[in-house]
Amino acid sequence: MQHHDTPSKRLTDWEHTPQGQFALKQEQSLLLHTASHWRRRQRRMLYVECGTGHFLETFWAAGFDITATVSSPADLHKTRTRIGRRAELHLTHPDDLPFEDNSYDYVLLITTLDYCPRPNQILAEASRVCAKEMLISFLNKHSLYLLSLARSKNTRAPRPTNWWSWPSMRLCVYHNLGPRRVRSKAGILPGPYHTWHARAACKAVNSLLCPNIFGAYCTMLLDMTGERVRTPLPAWVQPRTDAAAPSPNQIQAASPPADRIFIRPRITKAAPHTLLQPSLLRRMPGWAANRRPGAGCGADRTWPAPVQPKAAHDRTEAA
């Protein structure tokens, strides 16, 4: 493939068209909206295959400390001319990154899987160096954009090598990364290609966020902090005893010492007049004489001494 037919050359020419300027502005707004909750300080970001560095400058202006990789020396020269020394650039292939595991907090794959020949290897390599979240964007083949390209003769519009849809991208992530949680998903530019301009009605439609199954440009935010689900290995374990029947040692260990046992007083059913306060009952005449055991409330625990029966000779004397 010659240099003038590369995707980077097509995107560079497309940036100067009215549709390209409008679409890149909407894509930029969507990317910043998706990454709006990311922390800037003491965080590292990696942009895999940044192309000519258009969105690289956007994220640098948003306050990120960003590093980018480029696979073409010509694109590296263009990116360095655009961004200067504001970002760190590496000339390497996207499926073989020269970085340690979990060395970057955030990883960007902005239409990287659309133009690279080995998307599965690129996705696996990006997940290796990502520690927190990964942002993936792609062009949707189930949108009106692809239908309008098939009917038009415009050769300056981007035509990716790999067309993705939301189900196919989700399946690719599942096969390479496992069941990862999708934290955010959105789409933009739902209209046909000839409606991508700054007129009032078309701009209102193409600037709104829509479900990613309708938008021509879609994003997916993956949570990379959780561990990947793996198949558990069988293990031999001892059978557990019944928790409802504790052993005598457990009962003895759970019992409090004898000097700390609190005996709760027994509360018996009382007569209606005994529900009054004890201070009022003591003022009633004959309270102590009429007091009988078991007829008081639980707050009064002083009982009269039981009457002892008389001896046999006392009863004989009385007769």
Summed up, the helix count is 13
**Numbering strands along the chain, what is their spatial order in the largest sheet?**
3-2-1-4-5-7-6
Could you tell me the strand content as a percent range? 5-15%
- Name the shape in a single word: globular
Q: Uncertain spans, ≥5 residues at pLDDT below 50?
A: 1-6, 269-276, 296-303
Distance, first to last CA: 138 Å
Helix share of residues?
Answer: 25-40%
Give the rounded overall mean pLDDT. 77
Largest sheet: 7 strands, mixed
Radius of gyration: 40 Å
Based on helices, strands and strand pairing, what is the structural class?
Answer: alpha/beta
The count of β-strands is: 7
| Strand and helix order | HHEHEHEEHHEHHEHEHHHH
Write up what this structure looks like:
With 319 residues, the protein is α/β, with parallel strands linked by helices. Helices cover 34% and strands 14% of the residues. The protein is built from 13 helices and seven strands. The protein has helices spanning 7-14, 18-34, 54-61, 73-83, 112-115, 119-129, 144-151, 166-177, 200-206, 248-254, 278-282, 287-290, 312-318, and strands spanning 44-47, 65-70, 88-91, 104-110, 130-139, 181-188, 217-223. It has a seven-stranded mixed beta sheet. Strand 1 (44-47), helix 3 and strand 2 (65-70) form a beta-alpha-beta unit. The longest helix has 17 residues, at 18-34. The protein starts with 6 loop residues before the first helix and ends with a helix. Mean pLDDT is 77; it is low at 1-6, 269-276 and 296-303.
